[in-house]
Amino acid sequence: MTTTRRDFLVTGAASVCLAAAAAPTLAAVSTPRTRRLRIAHLTDIHLQPELEAARGFAACLAHVQTRPAVIDGDVADSSPPDLIITGGDTIMDAFEADMARTKLQWELWRKVKADHCGMEMHSVVGNHDVWGWARGKAGTTGTEPLYGKRWVCDEFGRELPYTSFDRGGWHLVLLDSVFPNEQSYIGRLDDAQWDWLERDLAAVDPATPVIIFSHIPILSATPLAVAGPTSPEVGSIQIPGGRIHVDGDRFQKLFTRQRNIKACASGHMHLVEQLDYQGVRYLCNGAVSAGWWKGLNRGTDFGYAVVDLFDDGTVERRYIPYGWTAAT
Ligand SMILES: [Fe+2]
Q1: Could you tell me the distance, in angstroms and rounded to a whole number, from the CA of residue 298 to the centre of ligand 1?
Q2: pLDDT tops 60 at residue 220
């Protein structure tokens, strides 16, 4: 590992203290952090037969698996990711789509994955992955065996839309942000998932750092950045509950109790953001589809995030454009 300027400064400071301090202190201070896990976070793929989206997603997967990612400040580190996590909105849309259109999109997902992905992959559920909740538009009744999240859970090979696992000395949690609201949705966990999450985290060793992936951001400034114009008389900004988790306060209380939760990574907004708040790093990680395959989204390129997790509980993220341009 190359010595960075930061490491040099830390080591230098420790050297100054050498006369007054015992040798174990020097070792403790000067030990550089070690990367334990590198994740490629591919969110908001919105796979569809149109706009050459399948070719674009294949190009993204090729980039992840073959192009070196450089990250961590001034240290060049080109090792490939250990695994891929997809961040939701896997397919263009099942929420308002009929069965035939939804089937077509999932078949395309399976084909591109089989043909172009040789890496371990875990997937988060996004609002567009849920089938037929907009019953008026989708023509669903709510009684179909694959209605709602059943279809996407089957595609992801899971019984439930949320899960967790351990890897590289970290605990990874994949949440389901999508909560029904009339024939639409808002961002929050249902009671069963809250029970599961609190039990899941309570079972984690407090020395083990945790990263949470959700489709909708748990905390983000991006909804403010895209807030529509408000009349001066109103004097406030309204943020729709579909843009950000409405149970954010419950998450903050949980994070105050469980200090080993180090980062939350999301998608949904198709924007890139890093926000550090009370010891937790919140990352909104752009979109593979940028502006739904038609071009950039408010300047955000077609891309994916490389998320590095270190043994000291720190997290670094780099957003990587994979060189795609919209079909003309
Ligand atoms: Fe999306």
Answers
A1: 14
A2: yes
